[in-house]
Specification:
By secondary structure, the protein is an alpha/beta fold. About 35% of the residues lie in helices and about 25% in strands. The protein is built from six helices and twelve strands. The strands form three sheets. Strands 6-3-1-7-8-12-11 form a seven-stranded mixed β-sheet, with helices on both faces. A three-stranded mixed β-sheet has the order 2-4-5. α3 packs across α4. The mean pLDDT is about 95.
């Protein structure tokens, strides 16, 4: 099966990391949580801190070449921190350049704005990210999942089933 990277840091929306990771593992994929820091990262569960997850690979030791797809969970804090990290942006860009599935949900499309990947692409996101995406040259749609080539985007936790299904389809 495929090897999938999930890039996240503290403040990821808990369901947007935990549920896709569990579903992709259940489908037989190897899934690594990658973060700029080692140890554990802590999720955000709606309006309070949530569970921690172990970091499988520190970003400084991760190679995009070792993975078949990249998943970017949302939450407000997580992508806002990652979009200020040059190594994280390079990691995201590498998947786009390689034409590998790149899946972003909720606020994670901020990383698509910061990397320039959103330009001329059809996407969706959490509603408050819409203006940023449009200003970056994307065409925004209000849909549970939008697929543009290898780029997969979804709006919110309720969209996770469609989000994971779209990832699975790109891996086969």
């Amino acid at each position: 099966m495929s090897r999938i990277a999930i890039l996240a840091t503290d403040g990821f929306e808990q369901s947007e990391l935990m549920e896709p990771r569990a579903q992709l593992k259940a489908a037989g994929h190897d899934v690594d949580v990658i973060s700029p820091k080692g140890g554990e990262i802590r999720g955000w569960n709606h309006k309070e801190w949530g569970e921690s997850v172990p970091v499988d690979v520190e970003l400084s030791k991760a190679s995009p070449a070792d993975y078949d797809a990249l998943v970017l969970p949302g939450g407000q804090m997580n992508p806002d921190v990652l979009r200020q990290d040059a190594a994280a942006l390079d990691f995201v860009r590498a998947f786009d350049r390689a034409g590998k599935p790149l899946a972003a949900i909720c606020h994670a499309p901020w990383l698509l704005v910061e990397t320039g990947i959103a330009k001329d692409r059809e996407v969706t996101s959490w509603p408050s990210v819409r203006t940023d995406l449009v200003n970056a040259g994307a065409q925004w749609r209000d849909a549970e999942v939008v697929v543009d080539g290898q780029l997969i985007t979804s709006r919110k936790p309720d969209d996770i089933p469609a989000f994971v299904q779209a990832i699975e389809q790109k891996l086969h």
